[in-house]
Design brief:
354 residues, alpha+beta, D-amino Acid Aminotransferase, Chain A, domain 1, 3 domains, five-stranded antiparallel β-sheet, 12 strands, globular, Alpha-L-glutamate ligase-related protein ATP-grasp domain-containing protein, RimK-rel_E_lig_ATP-grasp
């Protein structure tokens, strides 16, 4: 009995330390963003920040949720009831509304198994020592190159759990190397997408992605909650979180906002490299993008909130680059378009950060 008690205490101690570290990291990040906002736009209204502090205590029960609410308020210039702090989302919403099911999205070879269809540009996978096609047919290494490049000249390899522009590798037939892929780890081989001309006008070398956030309510209904365009820089082969440009997108019309935002939250009305302006443009095939992700989300309703990275190719076809069923980004959407989830009553959920 004593041994069990010791183990229980140890587990609780570890969990408590993890919870403290989780919120500390979020607090540091939110305070840095707040400083960036005040540098860009001037000091935030103290009364508005006070509202954020009070709301964190009254609604979420702890001051540790105030920093992100302060960011949203400083960005918006006002306070809006219903906002979800990003650390509350990650620490309480994700465990309650997704559990272990959301983590499936980290396993790239599972996408076609779960969703079927041709929405993903997957060609082949590597997992646990085996190469296999998107139809789960094992391919000998000597035949893989021909299988991969049968219908395309360039591919992208993405590692399991990759995100924020990390764990991404590009190959053509000349540079393709099975041994290198095996050394990198499990992941997916996708065809390189030639994006729609409107998207290519921003940055031709990297594929722009539309981040769509969908959620499933208590009646099982999936709906769109947020949308923004992520655009890379001219010198990069893919989008990286350190210097991407994020542009809010109207959830009804698909029109781009007049202003996009840099990684330091500074506003810009045009792409910093191509100088293409955002105003007056709209996402190609926007309604098709929404229909696609809603149909897919209905196949995994138990992952109650999902972030989808979507693009449209040169033929106008919707391509799902990735899906994130775990801690997908909500802070940018909450600040620019939120409150996005107010009717879902997530603030009533209970739980710890880990």
């Amino acid at each position: 009995m004593k041994l069990i008690d010791v183990e229980t205490v140890a587990r609780r101690s570890i969990k408590s330390v993890g919870r403290y570290a989780f919120h500390r990291v979020h607090g540091v990040q939110a305070k840095r963003v707040l400083r960036q906002l005040e540098k860009q736009y001037g000091p935030a209204d103290p009364a508005t920040l006070k509202q954020a502090d009070t709301y964190a205590l009254d609604v979420f029960g702890d001051a540790i949720y105030a920093p992100w609410l302060r960011v949203y308020a400083a960005f918006s210039g006002t306070f809006k009831e219903g906002w979800i702090p990003d650390n509350f989302y990650g620490g309480v919403v994700v465990p309650n509304m997704k559990g272990g099911y959301g983590r499936i999205s980290n396993l790239k070879p599972m996408s076609r198994v779960i969703f079927g269809g041709d929405a993903f540009p997957d060609i082949a996978y590597f997992a646990n020592g085996l190469f296999f096609t998107d139809r789960n047919v094992v391919v000998p290494e000597r035949e893989l190159e021909d299988a991969v490049f049968r219908d395309c000249d360039k591919v992208v390899f993405k590692l399991d759990g990759s995100g924020q522009g990390k764990g991404i590798h590009f190959f053509d037939r000349k540079s393709f190397d099975c041994d290198l892929i095996k050394s990198l780890g499990n992941g997916v081989i996708q065809k390189f997408i030639v994006q729609h001309p409107l998207l290519s006008a921003f940055a031709a070398n990297s594929v722009a992605t539309l981040r769509l956030t969908t959620a499933v309510d208590d009646l099982g209904r999936a709906s769109l909650r947020a949308a923004f365009l992520r655009v890379g820089r001219a010198s990069h082969t893919h989008i990286t979180v350190d210097d991407e440009v994020c542009v809010p997108v109207d959830l009804v019309t698909g029109e781009f906002a007049r202003k996009g935002f840099m990684s330091d939250w500074g506003a810009t009305e045009e792409h910093p490299d191509s100088k293409v302006r955002f105003a007056g443009l709209k996402m190609p095939a926007f309604s098709d993008c929404i229909d696609t992700v809603l149909q897919l989300h209905r196949k995994v309703p138990f992952a109650r909130c999902i972030g989808w990275d979507v693009t449209v190719d040169s033929d106008g076809k919707v391509q799902i680059m990735e899906w994130n069923g775990e801690h997908n980004d909500v802070k940018f959407s909450e600040a620019t378009q939120g409150p996005c989830f107010q009717d879902l009553k997530w603030e009533l959920l209970k739980g710890s950060a880990l």
